[in-house]
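Tutorial handout. Part one gives the primary structure; part two gives the three-dimensional structure as C-alpha cells.
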Amino acid sequence: MAYEHIKLEQSPAKVATIVIARPERLNALSGRTVDELRDAVAEAERSGARCLLLTGEGRGFSSGADLAGGGGLPEDAGAALEKHFNPLVEAIFALPMPVVAAVNGPCAGAGCSLALAADIVVAARSAYFLQAFVNIGLIPDAGATWLLPRLAGRARAMEMMMLGERVSAEQALAWGMIARVVEDEHLASEAVALATRLAQGPTVALGLIRRLALEAGHVPLREALAAERAAQREAGASEDFRAGVAAFLAKQAPRFEGK
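Part two.
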C-alpha cells in the first residue's frame, strides 16, 4: 500500500517507526489513515522489526477520528469501528514485539486509545489525554472502555470517560496510564532510545510477556500459571535464552538476536 497519511521508517536497530503524518488536521484518523496504520503494523512485523514506535507529526499525537472529513453524520456510528479501528487495535495487541508510543501534544479520542494500546507510553510534558466522546453524545471507542479501567482503575476511568475533560501528562503518569513524562525537547530522543533498547532485547520473551500481561486481567490464577508454564517453555527454547545464560555466567552483557 502506498501511504498518504502516515510514514513508516525502519532503523538499522530494527525499530519500525510509524508516524501519523496529517499535521494540518492534527493527525485526525480517517478511515484511510487507520487502514494505512494497520498495513504498516503488518509490514513492520513482516520486515523483522523487533520493536514498534508510534508517534504523531507536528504539534500533536492525534485529535481522534476525522469527524470533519466524514461527509455528514453516519447512519451507523459503529460501522467505522468494525471496518477500520477495531482491526487496527487487534493487530497492535497481536504483535509479537514491544510497542512504544511517543505522545506529543493533544492525544484525544480514538488517538488516545491508540496511544494507550502501546506497552510503554512516553509523553511530552505539554501532552494531554482526552476522551471527549461524551461531549458529542458518543461512547469512548477503539478499545478505550476496555483499556482505561485496566490502566487507571474504574473510578478514574469513569471520571475521564464521563466528564470528557483533559488529563495532563503528569496526571496520566500519576494515574498509571503512562510510563514516563519527559521535557518536550527530549521526547523523540527518549522514545527512540527506549525503543532501541527493547529492540536489542530478547524478542521472544518480550512478546510472550506482552501476551501474558494482556491475558492476565481476565483469566483465573490457575490458567495464568499454566500460561506462564507454556510461555516459559517457549522462551527457554529460544537462542536468546542460551545466549543470556552464557553471558550471565561469563559476567558479560548479553547480545540478543531476537530468536
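Part three, for discussion. The chain has ten helices and nine strands. The first helix runs from residue 31 to 46.
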